[in-house]
Design brief:
five-stranded antiparallel sheet; four-stranded antiparallel sheet; 6 helices; 16% strand; disordered N terminus; binds calcium ion
Length: 337
């Protein structure tokens, strides 16, 4: 049985539907088995697509500028030489959130209420977080309000852009849309978790264990602890080699081919944060001024390991600019004729 919650609709893009997961999945084995099969099939298809693209030399930094997507899942393209590299992800269904016993204390923020989202159309998502080079191209072209964010002395180029707030990120996607003629935007809360999970149902796309983090994500590791010891938050017990941000693509991608969905920098979503079952607590004026904050996802280079999970979400003020938050773009795919 699916129960539609009308209060969730403002968090969803028109092409997605959010539903609560009632009864619990373990009591609805037929539906769960179907979802599991879809997820496993997706992973197999993507693995085959990535392997084929790698064999043809079409992955990495060499997609053809101006290539038009054929809406085939796994296709990698870039709309211009300085535009973000994108990958097409299929339509599908995702179970958002984390069962309460698995949520680390103090970091749930409503994720314990699991709900299902239906993404009913394929779309494209950035393979990487938006980089300083891509941001600087926007500024050089007269976009992004002429704002040049600081890099903390860590370097620009292929490092993820930081010190950008929600409105800065929105300015970038507006510029990118105007430049390319395609609809670029920030992901919705549901779209983000859909692409971060990439068919997986574990806490992280690589599994449940924190100990595997250092192969897959730049978080608060022993390198970060050596550079900036935190008296109350121990690092994850491994070494990823980066105390601050890392160049994008330095870690193993998820099954959709996305790098750094967990760690490196938190990523702005387009939604105001709202509790899944307490929408009355939210004041969202014209989609810009969110009393409860804008959703950020994925954890960051200095974050407690419990926040580097697919379901974790933060809710800073949309005006926040700091060294822990960047963003990733998505692109709507026009229907093929
Ligand atoms: Ca690190």
């Amino acid at each position: 049985m699916r129960l539609r919650i009308s209060g969730l609709r403002t968090m969803a893009h028109p092409r997605e539907t959010l539903v609560l997961n009632r009864p619990p999945c373990k009591e609805n084995l037929t539906e769960c088995n179907v979802l599991h099969t879809v997820a496993e099939t997706m992973k197999v298809l993507f693995a085959a697509a990535v392997t084929a693209l790698a064999a043809s030399g079409c992955t990495g930094a060499s997609p053809q500028p101006g290539a038009q997507p054929g809406h085939e899942p796994g296709e990698v393209f870039r709309d211009c030489a300085t535009c973000p590299e994108m990958v097409v992800v299929p339509s599908g269904t995702v179970l958002l959130g984390t069962p309460m016993p698995q949520v680390p204390p103090g970091v749930g923020r409503g994720e314990e209420t699991q709900r299902r989202a239906v993404i009913d159309a394929a779309f494209a998502v950035g393979v990487y977080e938006v980089t300083f080079a891509e941001w600087d191209a926007c500024v050089e072209a007269g976009g992004c309000g002429g704002y040049s964010p600081g890099d903390q002395g860590w370097g620009r180029g292929t490092r993820p852009v930081i010190n950008v707030n929600f409105r800065d990120a929105r300015a970038y996607v507006r510029w990118l849309s105007g430049k390319t003629g395609h609809e670029y935007r920030l992901p919705t809360d549901a779209e983000w978790e859909y692409v971060a999970r990439a068919g997986t149902r574990t806490l992280r796309f690589w599994g449940d264990e924190e100990t595997e983090q250092c192969r897959h994500a730049n978080g608060y590791d022993t390198t970060g602890y050596a550079a900036k010891p935190h008296p109350f938050s121990p690092p994850v017990g491994c070494e990823d080699g980066y105390a601050w941000t890392a160049p994008v693509g330095s870690f193993v991608p998820n099954p959709f081919g996305l790098h750094d969905v967990l760690g490196n920098v938190k990523e702005w979503n387009n939604d105001c944060w709202r509790h899944p079952v307490k929408p009355a607590n939210i004041i969202d004026l014209l989609g810009w001024f969110c009393i409860t904050g804008r959703v950020t996802r994925g954890g960051h280079w200095g974050a407690f390991p419990g926040t580097l999970r697919s379901a974790w979400r933060g809710a800073p003020s949309g005006g926040t600019r700091n060294s822990a938050i960047g963003f990733r773009v998505v692109r709507t795919l026009e229907p093929t004729s």
